[in-house]
Write a structure and sequence with these properties.
With 129 residues, the protein is of the alpha+beta class. It has three helices and seven strands. Strand 5 and strand 6 form a beta hairpin.
Length: 129
């Protein structure tokens, strides 16, 4: 179960730093759009991206969601990708995220490979601020 402050920040118009592990063990971090349901943080990416290859090999991740209105307020979630969701649900989800962050639909021409939702179950949740 996500803590209420984690869920609230992830469902708001706040960006996340999403960290995965490269094959040689080095961390890789991207600034991402983020979402949440009651139990998981949700990251939407593409199957052709390095971050997807990373979590397919090693599902351990860290997601830090930063409050856009007060950057010293943030939550950090360490956990694992426990499920991937492809197909129309993932495609619809990127449009929902685009609506939240940009106010319009996602640019379909930007999609290079299949969209996928990464469902992340927390093992540790920490809030600051």
């Amino acid at each position: 179960m996500l803590e209420p402050n984690v869920k609230s920040l992830a469902q708001g118009k706040n960006f996340a730093a999403f960290s995965t592990l490269l094959p040689d063990g080095q961390p890789m971090t991207h600034v991402m759009w983020v979402d949440a349901d009651d139990e998981h943080l949700l990251i939407n990416t593409e199957v052709g991206r390095q971050k997807f290859r990373n979590v397919s090999r090693d599902p351990r991740v860290t997601v830090t969601v930063i409050d856009a209105a007060s950057p010293y307020r943030y939550v950090e979630v360490r956990g694992e990708v426990v499920q991937t969701v492809r197909g129309q649900e993932a495609r619809d989800h990127i449009d929902q995220l685009s609506q939240k962050y940009t106010g319009g639909p996602y640019d379909a021409s930007a999609i290079q490979t299949e969209r996928v939702i990464l469902r992340i179950t927390p093992s540790r949740q920490r809030a600051n601020g």
